[in-house]
Amino acid sequence: EENRQSIEEHMLEVHKELALYEATLSKQPWLVGSSVSAADLVIFPFFMSVMRAATRPAAETLKLGMLPLDKTYPELAAWVTRVARPARDLVGPTSASRSVDFAVVRS
């Protein structure tokens, strides 16, 4: 019961952070500007860890107030969809996508 209360109290801090992300994403598609950045790629796995924890059977009786994400934080839900796309879709074609002659680069 003590852990339950502690988790629910800490969720207030989590919601404050999520509200900041939601506000930012309501003005722009990415956390820092108009294109994907390191901020998106760093925050994403941490956010997904929180979401996975929120969907565990042990969390069902907790009052987390996060789910369904598309109703609670719709901009954040849309951002998750954008970040979850394959990396090639995020950054587009680059010079690295050209074929490399590995015989030339071997010593």
How many helical stretches? 6
Cα Rg: 19 Å
Share in β-strands: under 5%
Please provide the ordered H/E string of secondary-structure elements.
HHHHHH
Spatial separation of the terminal alpha carbons: 63 Å
Shape: elongated
Structural class: mainly alpha
User: Which parts are unreliable, with pLDDT below 50 for 5 consecutive residues or more?
Assistant: 97-107
The count of DSSP E runs of length 2 or more, i.e. the number of strands, is 0
Share of residues in helices: 55-70%
Brief rundown of the structure:
This protein has 107 residues and is mostly helical.
Give a written overview of the molecule.
The protein is an all-alpha fold. It contains 6 helices and no strands. The termini are far apart.
SSE order and pairing:
Elements: H1 2-25, H2 38-54, H3 69-72, H4 74-83, H5 87-91, H6 102-105
Please describe the structure with a list of short key phrases separated by commas or semicolons:
107 residues, mainly alpha, 6 helices, 60% helix, disordered C terminus
